[in-house]
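Practice problem: predict the structure.
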Amino acid sequence: MEEYRLNYAALGALAKIVHVADIEADVNIVPEAAELKAIAEGFYLSCPDDHEKLRLEFPLYDALYAWCRRTVG
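Answer:
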């Protein structure tokens, strides 16, 4: 987001959730991150093909972004 100077509140909220779910040891920093981490791990465990996994996950991230837009404004 910094590199491309993306300054959208909803995108920032989504980025924080994804970052914490992916990187942080304590996913409770952002409440939604724990759920996203569990869902992402479930996709990893249930779908060995990376392209298929991404195809299945994209609607989830689109929905999460829509939620961020509504929540953040």
